[in-house]
């Protein structure tokens, strides 16, 4: 029950709201500076807190900007990507001698990605910095059917994250 108390505390303290892809988030920064992109005029940078529990997943989605992930607390988190290289996994969390884990990872613009918490009955609290800044107009959420046509060998992870 201690984990559930910590999750409830973080949701309240950080003013986290449900995110359409799964988990909880709160925007903490949106730059006043703008930049012209092929998708229009965008804020230069945005940042959020993002909390994901082991009972939930961050569904496969794509944005038009680079996204830097920074680990804060909880269980390590796996960022799953789908690309011409197939399914790849980035381990975000506490560095250790037994795994290739880093407290920071980059997901390049236009990459299909989602995430899962590694430990059962746990959570991961991270921050995500998007540049050019995040805009829900650039957010694309995927369904299994579309992804399975493109990545049939990744059946298991696609079914888990859609």
UniProtKB/TrEMBL annotation:
<dbReference type="InterPro" id="IPR011051">
    <property type="entry name" value="RmlC_Cupin_sf"/>
</dbReference>
<protein>
    <recommendedName>
        <fullName>DUF985 domain-containing protein</fullName>
    </recommendedName>
</protein>
<feature type="domain" description="DUF985">
    <location>
        <begin position="10"/>
        <end position="142"/>
    </location>
</feature>
<dbReference type="InterPro" id="IPR009327">
    <property type="entry name" value="Cupin_DUF985"/>
</dbReference>
<dbReference type="Pfam" id="PF06172">
    <property type="entry name" value="Cupin_5"/>
</dbReference>
<dbReference type="InterPro" id="IPR014710">
    <property type="entry name" value="RmlC-like_jellyroll"/>
</dbReference>
<dbReference type="InterPro" id="IPR039935">
    <property type="entry name" value="YML079W-like"/>
</dbReference>
């Amino acid at each position: 029950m201690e984990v559930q108390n910590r999750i409830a505390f973080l949701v309240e303290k950080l003013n986290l709201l449900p995110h359409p892809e799964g988990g909880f988030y709160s925007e903490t920064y949106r730059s006043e500076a703008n930049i012209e992109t092929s998708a229009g005029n965008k804020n230069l940078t945005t940042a959020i807190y993002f909390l994901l529990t082991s009972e939930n997943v961050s569904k496969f989605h794509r944005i038009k900007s680079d996204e830097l992930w920074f680990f804060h607390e909880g269980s390590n988190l796996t960022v799953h990507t789908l690309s011409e290289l197939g399914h790849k996994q980035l381990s975000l969390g506490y560095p250790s001698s037994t795994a290739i884990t880093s407290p920071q990872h980059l997901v390049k613009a236009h990459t299909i990605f989602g995430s899962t918490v590694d430990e059962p009955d746990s959570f991961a609290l991270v921050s995500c910095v998007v540049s050019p800044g995040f805009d829900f107009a650039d957010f694309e959420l995927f369904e299994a059917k579309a992804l399975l046509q493109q990545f049939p060998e990744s059946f298991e992870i696609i079914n888990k994250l859609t």
